[in-house]
Design goal:
By secondary structure, the chain is an alpha+beta fold. It contains 6 helices and 18 strands. The chain has 2 domains: about 130 residues, Probable inorganic polyphosphate/atp-NAD kinase, domain 1 (Rossmann fold, 3-Layer(aba) Sandwich); about 130 residues, Probable inorganic polyphosphate/atp-NAD kinase, domain 2 (Tumour Suppressor Smad4). The longest helix has 15 residues.
Length: about 270
């Protein structure tokens, strides 16, 4: 079995746990370049995590997103060193036992049980796209705030939802509803609910956030901006305006291994 390990950059505790896992697991263990530098071993590029059978993320939700980008369809198991941990259900004290159990299960069954969660991707009129993202796609201008932003029209399944001037637009998955979407006043969506959330960022005449089906097609037309930044889980793509950005659920979901996070327990940590 091939196990990938991605530890939070600059976190000594995460690096120590990564080194410990690497030592005790009865598996072919690979670590990403950043983690490798922290524990003084050879590493692989994050994109090669997709070659593994299981990827272990050690850190907060940001580390999980980074690991998931490289893992693609490989199941990701999250060890929580962050404050909230919507994506990371395993405590550091339990990490060795939980990961070892997943390795044993794979050796006996040939698979890692995992829950599928939707990702969103963006495409444009030109030959460009933002790869599948676990949390959200964000469409924004060069800067936020007074005198900046962009002129947008947002259509859902061909019908006009909102239009006007705004700092940007978010299209979030249920997983992403607890992240950027929440900080912008969007609603929480419990894991397992088949929905997308469309949220304007500081619109001049804003509509409330819209919860719509996973099969919805969201088009964001940008008519007036120096340029447009389309980003997903930290990956940014710059395009010229005017431009129409189409956001939809990706064909291939992300896969999360290990025990499920208690949504409401994690929610209580936001207070």
């Amino acid at each position: 079995m091939k196990v990938g390990i991605v530890a939070q950059k600059g976190n000594a505790r995460a690096a120590f746990l990564a080194a410990e896992l690497r030592e005790v697991l009865q598996a072919d263990v690979r670590v990403d370049v950043s983690t490798a530098a922290a524990i003084d071993v050879s590493g692989v590029e994050i994109s090669r995590m997709s070659e593994c059978d299981l990827v272990v993320s050690i850190g907060g939700d940001g580390t999980f997103l980074f690991a998931a980008r490289g893992a693609d369809q490989t199941p990701v198991l999250g060890v929580n060193l962050g404050e909230v941990g919507f994506l990371n259900a395993v405590s550091p004290d339990d990490a060795l036992d939980v990961v070892a159990a997943e390795v044993e299960r794979f050796e006996s069954s040939g698979e890692v049980p995992a829950r599928e969660v939707p990702r969103v991707e963006a495409t444009g009129e030109g030959d460009w796209f933002v790869p599948p993202s676990l949390n959200e796609i964000a469409v924004q201008g060069p800067q936020r705030g007074h005198g900046h932003g962009l002129s947008v029209e947002v259509r859902v399944d061909g019908s006009l939802y909102t239009g006007g001037h705004a700092d940007g637009v978010l299209v979030s998955t249920p997983t992403g509803s607890t992240a950027y979407n929440l900080s912008e006043g969007g609603p929480l969506v419990r894991a397992g609910v088949d929905a997308l959330v469309v949220t304007e960022l500081c619109g001049t005449d804003p509509m409330p956030s819209l919860v719509t089906g996973l099969d919805s097609d969201v088009e964001i037309r940008v008519n007036d901006a120096p340029y447009v930044v389309v980003s997903g889980d930290g990956r940014r793509h710059r395009v010229e305006a005017p431009e129409t950005i189409r956001v939809a659920v990706a064909d291939e979901p992300a896969r999360i291994a290990g025990p499920a996070t208690d949504f409401f327990q994690a929610l209580a940590k936001l207070d």
